[in-house]
Amino acid sequence: MTEEPRPTLEAVAARAGVSRATVSRVVNGDPGVREALAEKVRHAVDELGYVPNRAARSLVTRRHDAVAVVIAEPETRVFADPFFALQLRGISKELTAQDVQLVLLLTEGRDDHERVGRYLAGGHVDGALVFSLHLDDPLPGIIRRAGLPTVFGGRPGWPEEESGGPGAPYVDCDNRGGAREAVRHLVGLGRERVAHITGPLDQTSAVDRLDGFRDVLGDVDPRLIAEGDFTPAGGERAMRELLDRVPEVDAVFAANDLSASGALRVLRERGRRVPDDVAVVGFDDMLPVAEGAEPPLTTVRQDIEEMGRLMARMILRGRGEEGAGSGPAQVVLPTALVRRVSA
């Protein structure tokens, strides 16, 4: 059976009764076509089932209708952590609404950095959304040298010459303010030995949450701070350290919900009742984790999916997409304490 030839621009132009150039302008989103003519073209496109050739269109528009999402974590971490799923969902919704493809790039080692750098410099995408960076990560410099528009997820903490200067676009939440609210809540419950399980301290979000903890408690006993890594296993390890060092700890602020879930498991193992003996507060409010915890977790909510949407809008705005939104280059979203059973 012979395959039907694909409809061409010329066929659409003949059906609509307009020039090929007019069809090209409508298909490529040029606003300089009268609405009556544009509607004829759109109707002909629908009738014929015309699908634009993306490669040819990119030669005209100098756009590729694709955005890279670069996550500086191994795939085992990305697919196990619901934080990334929520952020990717927000990004995907926004890009899909503008008919832009999402290209996911993960990094696990130096070879991956070089591979990502080659891809980004190769003219395949219109911009990059980058998150979960660590302070010693070479990716900001690699991306800057690729010359791509970039939006960072999280406040940049690396040298300005690497991230593109002090005005580098980013979306974050109020990590420090949210941490202060969490610790004030624990202090307000009458807790006297409040400990903190940090995130990895080579990430700005973890540093900001530690700073918020210290804002409330001042010159806290260093034995009450244990470094975690935003994972349940890291939370377990840190909670054991805290109980071994300070058995009388009566409250814990964990830097994220996954760390808090690990801490809750260790407290159960050690026979500590939550919240009676030890009150626990997390950060993120990832519902499957926070509501599924035993007991349900009091936590600081950040709108992770909205952060993804805003990152996508910012990169689309840089491409000049109509209706992609407008706003500042740096956005910090508010947080809110969500009270459940654990504190």
Major sheet size, sense and barrel closure: 6 strands, parallel
Tertiary shape: elongated
* Helical segment count: 15
Strand runs, count: 12
Strand order across the largest sheet = 2-1-3-4-5-11
Order of helices and strands: HHHHEHHEHEHEHEHEHEHEHEHEHEE
Strand percentage lies at: 15-25%
The end-to-end distance, rounded to whole angstroms, is 69 Å
| Structural class label | alpha/beta
Helix content: 40-55%
What is the oligomer described by this structure? single chain
Low-confidence stretches: 321-325
- CA gyration radius, whole angstroms: 25 Å
| Mean pLDDT across residues | 86
Can you give a write-up of this model?
This protein is 46% helix and 15% strand. Strands 2-1-3-4-5-11 form a 6-stranded parallel beta sheet, with helices on both faces. A 6-stranded mixed beta sheet has the order 7-6-8-9-10-12, with helices on both faces. It is an alpha/beta fold. The protein is built from 15 helices and 12 strands.
Question: What structural keywords apply?
Answer:
single chain; 343 residues; 6-stranded parallel β-sheet; 6-stranded mixed β-sheet; 12 strands; 46% helix; 15% strand
Write a brief structural summary.
The model is unreliable at 321-325 (pLDDT under 50). The protein has helices spanning 9-16, 20-27, 35-48, 54-61, 75-78, 82-97, 110-121, 139-146, 160-163, 175-188, 204-217, 232-245, 257-269, 287-290, 304-319, and strands at 66-71, 101-106, 128-131, 150-153, 170-173, 194-198, 225-227, 251-254, 279-284, 298-301, 330-333, 336-338. It is of the alpha/beta class.
